[in-house]
Amino acid sequence: MVLTGAGMSAESGVPTFRGESGLWRSYRPEELATPEAFSRDPLLVWEWYAWRRGLIAACEPNPGHTALARFMLRPSRTTTLVTQNVDGLHTRALERAHQEEPTGGGGLATPGEIPEGARAIEVHGTIAGDRCSECHLRSAAVPVDLTSVDTLPRCTECGGLLRPDVVWFGEALDEAVLSAAFEAAGNADVCLVAGTSAVVHPAASVPLATLHNGGDLIEVNPESTPLSRHARVRLAGPSGEVLPALLDPLG
Ligand code: BV8
Ligand code: ZN
What we know:
By secondary structure, this protein is an alpha/beta fold. It has helices spanning 29-32, 35-40, 42-57, 63-73, 89-100, 175-187, 206-212, 239-247, and strands at residues 2-4, 81-83, 120-122, 125-132, 138-140, 162-166, 190-194, 216-220, 233-235.
C-alpha cells in the first residue's frame, strides 16, 4: 500500500502544511481547519478554502502522481493508495493515466471508470466537495461568494451553512474509510510512505499496521520523520523524482 501526504503535491505547487510556504496570512492550519474556527468565523475559514481551491485548480499532478497512478493501474496491481491530501491530484493523475493507458502500460484495456481498487482513499476528505454543517448533505463544490457571512453558500435542503467536505482537527475520520486504510496496511507486504511529516494522527499510524503484520516500510521524504526509524529503506529525495525512478522500472 501507499500512504501520501502534502509533500506529494509540493512539486505541483500546492503548499505543504508544515513547511515554510504552508502558512496563509500567518495562520497555522491547526487554527483554521477546526470546527471551532468555522463556527467563530466562517467567512475567514471559507476565504482560506476558496484561496486553496483556486490555487489547487491551477496546479497539475506531478511526475510522482503520474508514476504512482500508472503503477496502480497495472493489471497485476494489488496496491491500495491512502492519501491525507484533500487536493484531488491523485484522482486527476489516475483519471489521466486511465485515459492514456487504461492498464498503466500493459495488458488489456479496461475502458470506463478507474477500477474500484485503484481509487485513492482520501482519509481527510476532499476540498472539491461541500458538506452541510447541519444535515451533512454532500454536494459538489459550489462557488463561494465571500462578500459577507450572509453570502456564504447554504444547504438547499435545510439552509445550514455549507463547509468544505474535509476532516478538521478534532473531528473523527469516517469510520469505514479509516478501517479500509488500516485493513490495507495490515495486509500489505510493503507500505510506501511518501511526502508526509507523519505527525497527524490517526493517519500517521496507518503504516505501523504494516510493520505489526511483518511488512516493511519504504519512506520517500527529503527530511526524516517519526516513521524514519521504522523504515527498511529511506529514499531522501523529492517524490516527483524518486517515485518515477522507483516505480516506472517495476511497470
Ligand atoms: C482526530 C484536512 C479524534 C483539512 C487535515 C491536540 C488537540 C486536538 C487534537 C489533537 C491534539 N493532539 C493530537 C490531536 C489529534 C489531531 C492531530 O493529529 N494533531 C496533530 C497536529 C498533532 N488529529 C485530529 O484531530 C484528527 N482527528 O484525532 O479525531 C476524535 C475521535 C472521535 C471523535 C472525535 C474526535 C483529524 C486530523 C485531520 C486534520 N485534517 N486535513 C485541510 O486539509 O484543510 S490534516 C492535514 O495535515 C492535511 O491533511 C495533511 O495532509 C496532514 C498531514 O500533514 P502532511 O501531509 O504530513 O503534510 P506536512 O506539511 O505536515 O508535511 C509535508 C512533508 O512532506 C514533510 O515531511 C516534508 O519533508 C515532505 N516534503 C516536502 N516536499 C516534498 C516532501 N516529500 C516528498 N517530496 C517532496 N517534494
Ligand atoms: Zn443541510
